UniProtKB/TrEMBL annotation, chain A:
Name of the molecule in the record: Alcohol dehydrogenase
InterPro entries documented for this protein: ADH-like_C, ADH-like_N, ADH_Zn_CS, GroES-like_sf, NAD(P)-bd_dom_sf
Listed cofactors: Zn(2+)
PANTHER family documented for this protein: DEHYDROGENASE, ZINC-CONTAINING, PUTATIVE (AFU_ORTHOLOGUE AFUA_2G02810)-RELATED, ZINC-TYPE ALCOHOL DEHYDROGENASE-LIKE
TrEMBL record, chain B:
UniProt cross-references to Pfam families, sorted A to Z: Polyketide_cyc (PF03364)
Domain Coenzyme Q-binding protein COQ10 START: 98-221
Disordered: annotated segments: 1-23, 230-249
InterPro entries for the chain: COQ10_START (IPR005031), ORF3 (IPR047137), START-like_dom_sf (IPR023393)
Originating organism: Deinococcus grandis
Official protein name in the record: Cyclase/dehydrase
Biased composition (Pro residues): 7-17
């Protein structure tokens, strides 16, 4: 089959690889009908997330049709049309039973690697997302092996198009969880979203769905800001305005009640802090650049929430912790517990409350994917979200 | 966990090859120079490595060895979390919470002959009688075996054992089964103590080459948890990739 393969730092390519097979009786094989490139794939592309190996198949946002199931699979049948959460969860461990699916105890076969870095515990496995997260082959391919097939995949019974449900695999639940973590008081709270990429777009619209009185989106890319503006958000271009001043002014000096950092560790930005972050990352002394996080802590209102869907990887410093303490902020963060959001969000799509396909700017075949990785990384051609058809 | 051991009279004690610290708490000069050069070599390998994780690990291990050589102290054993008793025993312990009742988990452990399925470096345990058993372990130097005896057996709560005198690797250990708060099942705590061949240097070398008991114990406990909770171990062995070897099963 054809698959997108990590070939080394900043090199992805299309290669012909063996078709996947069932490795355990609880596995299923899915024929992928649609898959997407995610902003977090870019952390793999440039090697910021360690433990990729040459030849790894990328991709964690995919959906398709079940073509084979292992003998212990009960819920899923050949022919089912499914969306598959990007995180792999066993469904029986304590975190899974509490709905903390991304924190699954059991699904990461390489638990050692994460334990060494993260205080003796590892999260669950992820599709196509480095060996630290299990080394599972990803879904930017014609077929993919799905472990714990009775736990993750969610059947799509309605005739919604792929493009309307594909993002239930990651960016819609990720943006939604970020907004949900804020504990928005409907009709009262102001929410600021740093980063108008795909997750930021869904976070902003989820904040609106959860009743935020006002949503402000901060970025520097005009077409991304325009997309947020089209949804009724106020926008701030941080290259044209002083973010902290603009946010104070927009909120009567209080600051946003909740701030969502949908940027994560590869923030751009300027000033001495950003330069130091970049230099340290280049020297591999640090994984993270934290401009967005600094702004989040400095701008957030007293008693507010800082919600982090953006990925952080390692150690960070020069965090304005004094500001966070002085204002009594709450931090909420972590990988998305995708499984628990799919059914309720699918209902919202079916009810016509949201059509997630608004975020798509580019459609292509697998053969075009390597070019589009670069287009997406460099934010060229108005690129916000790329959907791939593995059979085109 | 500590036992009283008779100290042999000085005149009959063999020349020590263990990196004992002398009265001033200093490491022997030879060991210092060996550690210094290994440390510098590892630091170099770490700096040359293109992979950040490897760089971090090799670099810090190397720096630790070099510092140990320079200061003549033993910060590396501490940095590598090698814990030692004043008697020179290495302590290894770890814990895992498993969503099963304590009685079930106790029964699996109490079946000593079945232990090699839980602890993969154990080759065989032969039950000799109610108290005694014969243990065989796969070591880097070949197989090692000894006789052990149960020193405690409290159903659903605790099992403890100790190697009988004359064992090639003196060791003792215990496993505790404690109800976890809430409905989370059972906390399984394992504590092992042993006298490593080659002393702390042996323990450090073993850690660097991945044969270290603390990591083995961690892996064993996770395998046990997954066996009990899932009935199998998740795997990616044999999955598709663009690598010629380790690709398709
Ligand atoms: Zn994603
Ligand atoms: Zn789980």
């Amino acid at each position: 089959m054809k698959a997108i393969v990590w070939q080394g730092t900043n090199r992805v390519g299309v290669e012909t690889v063996p078709d996947p097979t069932l490795l355990l009786p609880t596995d299923a094989i899915i024929r992928v009908t649609s898959t997407a490139i995610c902003g977090s794939d870019l952390h793999l592309l440039d090697g910021v997330i360690p433990s990729m190996e040459k030849g790894d198949i990328l991709g964690h946002e995919f959906m398709g049709e079940v073509v084979e199931v292992g003998r212990d699979v009960r819920r899923l049948k050949v022919g089912d049309r499914v969306v598959v959460p990007f995180n792999i969860s066993c469904g029986v461990c304590d975190p899974c039973r509490r709905g903390l699916f991304s924190a699954c105890d059991n699904s990461n076969p390489n638990h050692r690697m994460a334990e060494a870095l993260y205080g003796g515990v590892s999260g669950g496995g992820l599709f196509g997302y480095s060996h630290m997260y299990g080394g599972y082959a990803g879904g930017q391919a014609q077929y993919v092996r799905v472990p714990f097939a009775d736990v993750g995949p969610h059947r799509i019974e309605s005739d919604l198009r792929d493009e309307q449900v594909l993002f239930l695999t990651d960016i819609f639940p990720t943006g939604y969880q970020a907004a949900e973590n804020c504990g928005i008081v409907p009709g009262r709270d102001v929410v600021a979203v740093f980063g108008a990429g795909p997750v930021g777009q869904f976070a902003a619209r989820s904040a609106q769905m959860l009743g935020a009185a006002h949503v402000i989106v901060i970025d520097r890319v005009p077409e991304r800001l325009a997309m947020a503006e089209a949804a009724g958000c106020q926008v701030i271009n941080y290259e044209q305005e002083d973010v902290l001043v603009a946010l104070r002014e927009s909120t009567g000096g209080r600051g946003p009640d909740h701030v969502i950092d949908a940027v994560g560790m590869e923030a751009h930005g300027h000033g001495p802090g950003a330069l130091v972050d970049t230099a340290k990352q280049r020297l591999k002394l640090s994984f993270d650049r934290i401009t967005a996080l600094r702004w989040a802590l400095l701008s957030c209102a007293k008693g507010g929430t800082v919600s982090l869907p953006g990925v952080y990887g390692g150690l960070i410093d020069k965090v304005p912790m004094g500001a966070a303490f002085a204002k009594g902020l709450t931090f909420r963060m972590g990988q998305t517990h995708t499984h628990r959001h799919i059914a309720p969000l699918l209902s919202r799509i079916e009810a016509g409350e949201i059509d997630p396909s608004f975020v798509i700017t580019h459609r292509a075949s697998l053969d075009d994917a390597p070019d589009l990785y670069r287009t997406f990384r460099d934010k060229q051609g108005g690129c916000i979200k790329v959907v791939l058809n593995p059979w085109a | 966990m500590s036992e009283d051991r008779p100290t042999p009279p000085p005149e009959t004690s063999p020349p020590t090859t263990e990196p004992r610290t002398d009265a001033a708490g200093q490491l022997p000069a030879l060991e210092r120079s060996v550690m210094g050069s290994v440390g510098v070599a590892l630091m170099g390998a770490g700096l040359r490595s293109a992979r950040p994780l490897q760089k971090l690990v090799l670099g810090s291990v190397g720096a630790g060895l070099a510092a140990m050589a320079a200061t003549g102290r033993n910060p590396l054993a501490t940095a590598l979390k090698i814990r030692q008793t004043p008697q020179g025993e290495v302590l290894v312990s770890d814990a895992v919470t498993i969503g099963k009742p304590a009685d079930d988990l106790y029964r699996v452990w109490r079946d000593l002959a079945g232990l090699p399925r839980l602890m993969t470096h154990l080759k065989a345990v032969e039950v000799l009688d109610e108290r005694r058993s014969h243990w065989t372990v796969e070591a880097p130097t070949g197989t090692v075996s000894w006789d052990a005896a149960l020193t405690a057996d409290e159903p659903g709560r605790r099992i403890a054992w100790a190697a009988l005198p004359g064992a090639a690797i003196e060791n003792h250990g215990e496993v505790l089964f404690r109800p976890a708060p809430g409905d989370r099942g059972t906390e399984v705590v394992v504590r092992l103590a042993y006298r490593p061949p080659g002393g702390s240097a042996g323990a450090i070398a073993a850690r660097l080459f991945g044969e270290e008991p603390a990591q083995q114990l961690r892996d064993d406990l996770m395998r046990f948890k997954r066996e009990q909770e899932l009935g199998f171990a998740p795997t990616t062995d044999g999955q598709s990739s663009a690598r010629a070897v380790g690709g398709q099963a």
